[in-house]
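Appendix C: a fully annotated inverse folding record. The material below is reproduced so that readers can follow the format used throughout the book. The structure is listed first as tokens, followed by the designed sequence.
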């Protein structure tokens, strides 16, 4: 029976890097663990792995008969196939507690911080295990990504402390400059298909018996989407029908202006309007200061449903 660490489907950088960092830690503690991922790498994640010369985790969507450490989620909607046939050893996450259950006790590190890699950093400190320079650098950028360069309301003092300590280990003098370079890569959408953009950072959620899909694209200038909104809306509508979803929402987040343009395809747009006290115009609306799907969007949406 093999042991893996793996994050959610449509993996973001935190999901991929936390699988790498946690696998290394567990292996150092005497439990051989292999990092895995449930989906293709985003341009941002490729940038992180390339910058620090790390190999991509193996692609794996079924862990039947294996041991598994879950990172960066605890919702069944984001889990691999046949999870009931998987022996879950632990969960390391910074989101709300989801609906995954186990038949035996498990290790849990769940904290209200901005990034799962911040928690993994605390685990390294707890066990007094040194972090290699390459993994430290990747963890640092994953935290900067998830906290939107410390601008997100999810960011805590623990996140900023972790970034500074990881930057020192990785030998990165100007982590903010490297973080901005990463976000410029993340903002590059030219040539990408509407479906790949929708799913680049996308999650399905169960809310009041309804399946709600929410994606997010963080860029430094929303003008990059001007010529592609029509295609995005068409694909969102198709994806909604394919999965029998109540709503599909795509957040176009401007990290410089600090707010999000919502693109909405829904059976009941009033639910989204009421959640944010803002009217949709042609299925779009701007909501100031919205940067975090986890903290600012999901909780108010769940109340509506």
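Designed amino acids, in order:
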């Amino acid at each position: 029976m093999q042991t893996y660490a793996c994050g959610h489907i449509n993996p973001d950088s935190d999901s991929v890097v936390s699988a790498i960092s946690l696998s290394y830690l567990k292996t150092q503690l005497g439990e051989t663990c292999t990092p895995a991922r449930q989906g293709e790498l985003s341009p941002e994640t490729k940038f992180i792995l390339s910058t620090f010369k790390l190999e991509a985790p193996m692609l794996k969507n079924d862990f039947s008969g294996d041991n598994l450490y879950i990172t960066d989620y605890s919702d069944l909607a984001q889990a691999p196939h046949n999870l009931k046939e998987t022996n879950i050893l632990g969960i390391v996450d910074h989101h709300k507690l989801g609906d995954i259950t186990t038949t035996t006790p498990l290790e849990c590190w769940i904290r209200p911080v901005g990034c799962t890699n911040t928690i993994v950093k605390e685990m390294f400190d707890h066990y007094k295990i040194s972090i290699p320079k390459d993994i430290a650098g990747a963890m640092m950028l994953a935290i900067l990504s998830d906290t939107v360069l410390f601008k997100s309301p999810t960011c805590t003092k623990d996140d900023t402390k972790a970034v500074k300590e990881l930057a020192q280990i990785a030998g990165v003098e100007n982590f903010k400059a490297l973080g901005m370079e990463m976000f410029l890569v993340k903002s590059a959408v030219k040539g990408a298909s509407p479906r790949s953009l929708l799913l680049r950072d996308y999650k399905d959620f169960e809310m009041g018996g309804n399946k709600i899909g929410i994606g997010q694209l963080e860029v430094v200038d929303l003008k990059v989407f001007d010529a592609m909104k029509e295609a995005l809306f068409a694909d969102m509508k198709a994806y909604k029908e394919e999965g029998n979803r109540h709503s599909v929402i795509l957040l176009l987040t401007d990290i410089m202006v600090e707010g999000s343009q919502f693109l909405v395809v829904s059976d009941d747009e009033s639910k989204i309007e009421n959640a944010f006290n803002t009217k949709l115009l042609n299925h779009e609306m701007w909501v100031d200061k919205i940067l975090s799907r986890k903290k600012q969007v999901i909780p108010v949406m769940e109340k509506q449903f």
